[in-house]
Amino acid sequence: MEVRRLVLGLAAHGLPSAGLDLPERPLPDDEWKRLRNEVRHQRLTGQATAAADQGALALTPEQREDLEREHVAALAQVLRLERALLRVHEVLADAAVPFVVLKGSAVGHLDYADPGARAFGDNDILLATDRYAEGMTALLDQGWVRPAAEIGPGFDVRFGKGATLIGADQAELDVHRTLAMGPYGLLVRLDELWDRPARFALGGRELLALGTEQRYLHACFHAVIGNSSRRVVPHRDVAEMLLYGEHDPARLRELAAHWSAEVVLARAITDTWALLGITESGPLVDWAHERVPTRRDQRLSGVYGPGSSYAAKALAGVTVLPRWRDRLDYVRLLALPGDQSLAFRGRSRVGWLVRGGRRLVQHRRRSRVPGG
Question: pLDDT, tens digit, for every residue of 97-127?
Fold first, then answer.
């Protein structure tokens, strides 16, 4: 069996009607090592361990020990990250800046029966736009470091997805203002992200997470337009939350429509069902398979495809800003970034403008869709 199919079988383990088989006999050691390495990369040690426990994944005693070591290492990383998250909570609570936990720990505790089955590699939080600068200052003052400088003054708060910080423990913290970069991030109604937040306990403290429907849409965003590493875990999230969650399908579609992201919701479901071999149906699954993307859907979602660049997504964002003043400021900040931002990206101002001009021409050629 090829490694990719085995990985998909493990990602689908425990889901109803998943038609991907796992080997009935232990793999040869060389094939096992390739599978183990991919399971580690895909952060699926929890699913692999559950499959082995339930007899669905045949392993030799040595392979089982090997898998257990990998799973312990993945759990240890999660615990380190959750300790770092509690430190973030402490700093932002002292600054009186509320925040919401995205993905990782929130999804593990709220959407999986066993939080240990949802491994992750960094922490993600959301700050409200009007408190974003204040929250970032509080974190930077307490030792977090921002490797990449802001494009230009005010870009983050008005247009940006967010920024990545590195803590003293080297744990990565992604501080979001919205859920994605480019057009879909700019189309999210940010006030709706804070509507009816969920709560979960961690280390004796109560943390906020996105509400059920917002959390599901974020999983769809991650699977379709934010999964640059092409991991399977975001698709497992989409399946896990839809099949076992207590979401309101009507509200899901309403939020997706508000954010012009119905195509993202539909594609996340259809891609996940195809990828993991799920045959279980339902009203939302039927809607997703029946929905036909509009030309606007195709134009906007096309900038998030394989090989898409930061520039392509950024340039596409111009088209969804409602006010000409915002469009002009957005283009000005992208075209004339600050010196620190240029230095981080290793570009001169002339080189940046030349490259940006080429990207703009390429984007305009690709986006000429009649009637869009």
Answer: 999 999 999 999 999 999 999 999 999 999 9
Report yes or no on 271 lying in a domain.
yes
In this structure, which amino acid lies at residue 254?
E
Question: How many angstroms separate the Cα of 113 from the Cα of each of 30, 157, 203, 241, 254?
Answer: 33, 36, 18, 11, 27
Distance CA 5, CA 22 (A): 9
Query: 127 lies in which domain range?
Result: 3-366
Mean pLDDT in residue range 53-71: 95
25 found inside a domain:
yes
Is residue 202 classed as helix, strand or coil in its secondary structure?
strand
Indicate which CATH number applies to the domain containing 215.
3.30.460.40
Question: pTM for the whole thing?
Answer: 0.89
Q: How confident is the model at residue 350 (pLDDT cuts 50, 70, 90)?
A: very low
Q: What is the 3-state secondary structure (H, E, C) of 91-159?
A: HHHHCCCCCEEECHHHHHHHHCCCHHHCCCCCEEEECCHHHHHHHHHHHHHCCCECCCCCCCCCHHHHC
In a domain, 40, yes or no: yes
Total number of domains constituting the chain? 1
Encode pLDDT of 3-27 as tens digits: 889 999 999 998 986 667 788 899 9
- pLDDT band per the 50, 70, 90 thresholds, residue 371: very low
- Radius of gyration from C-alpha coordinates of the chain: 21
What is the sign, positive or negative, of the torsion defined by CA atoms of 271, 275, 277, 278?
A: negative
Residue 256 lies in a domain: yes
